[in-house]
Amino acid sequence: RVGQGRRNLMRRSLAAALLALALSAPLSAQELMDRIVINGYTNFEFSKQLSAEGPGDKNGSFDADQFDLVFNITVSERVRAALDLSWEHGTATEDGRGNQAMEYGFVEYAVSDMLKLRFGKMFTPFGVFNEIHTAKPAFLTVKEAASLNKNDRIVGGGFLFYPRWGAGIAAHGDAVVGGKDLSYDVLVANGEQQEANPFEEDENTSKSITARLRVDATENLRVGYSFYHDRLSSASYTTLQSHGFEAELSLTRFRLLAEVAFGSLGRVSGGEQRQIGWYIQPSYHLKGGFTPYMRFDYVNPDRSLSDVDGRDFILGLNVELSKNFQLKLENNAFHGGSKSTLASLPGQGYHEFKAALVLGF
User: For residues 108 and 157, what is the distance between their CA atoms, to the nearest angstrom?
Assistant: First the structure.
């Protein structure tokens, strides 16, 4: 009987433990969900070349451009994990269509507000648009400013001022100095590669260095400077170095955004290719969620040559249909110099209409 009593007690204890575990499981799941914040965005686009000739979309195409999910996971008071997963152009890997990617994935350890260390794959912190180029709700236009980000959309013959991403170690910080708010970013990464996966290994001993400083000069004006340098493993080029300057003026309804970048690509044969790109973008926010905007993008891919430059003049309208839901309509007028890759077109340019429906959540 004593043995039977002990067995019954053990059964009751086991049942109580299982019941306690079952009751605590939802609490653990809730705690986990409280630590995870999920956001995202998606955009649907249409483009149609209006001119008879040009490299644009002559047919007029719909594009299920992308769907992104962004995860921020608070592990502890000091540790955070961040992840952005994207599906582009109606991803169907079985059919070899579209693209699926981890845009960024890193761990952040906060020493203080002035020093947050990050480890993993990150967007290169250069200029205004690169870190938000997939987040279309974050800016007015259909596409980011091509002059500093994808200058081949305007004219050929150039190079990127910096790679889109980098795998390495970064530092980010926010501070107040002399009564001015400022923030900084520094990234040491593998740099651009010719063959190896740059998020796995480096083809040479050199590491790329990116740095950016932003200062709120006044209540209405923010200015910034960006720097990128890397020694390349290319058979044709030795170094890539770029300097960028940005400014944003925000008044009651008027906003002016501008950037300029200078890049130099060292050649193995000697000398360098020097490139400049800049844009200026004024906009005015009207009542009812209507924001007309303009942007002038300019690229000279090789400043040692004449008439190889290209430009894109945009007239557009951003309409906030509902909270975080935007309609964007714009005309892009491309024009190139007499010796540019657009020189063979009538009038040395073409027009293209672009539209997008953008949702952030």
Answer: 38
Which contacts qualify for 193-198: CB closer than 8 Å, 24 or more apart?
193/233, 194/233, 194/234, 194/235, 198/163, 198/165, 198/166, 198/167
Beta bridge partners of 72: 37, 82
Element (H, E) at 6: helix 2-35
Given a cut of 70, is residue 228 above it in pLDDT? yes
Structure tokens at 211: 């740095």
pLDDT in tens, 279-327: 999 999 999 999 999 999 999 999 999 999 999 999 999 999 999 999 9
What DSSP string describes 197-226?
A: -TTT--SSS--EEEEEEEEE-SSSEEEEEE
Query: Taking a C-beta distance cutoff of 8 angstroms, is the pair 304, 274 a contact?
Result: yes
Tokens matching residue 7: 């067995």
In 3D space, the residue among 200, 159, 205, 166 whose CA is nearest the CA of residue 185 turns out to be 166
- 160 three-class SS: coil
Say how many residues make up the chain. 361
Those residues whose C-beta lies under 8 Å from the C-beta of residue 346, and which sit 6 or more positions away, are: 51, 52, 53
Burial class (CB in 10 A: 0-12, 13-18, 19+), 213: middle
Local structure of 235: helix, strand or coil: coil
Strands 310-322 and 325-336, by their bridges, are antiparallel
The whole-model pTM stands at 0.88
Q: How far is Cα of residue 315 from the mean position of the Cα atoms in its chain?
A: 23
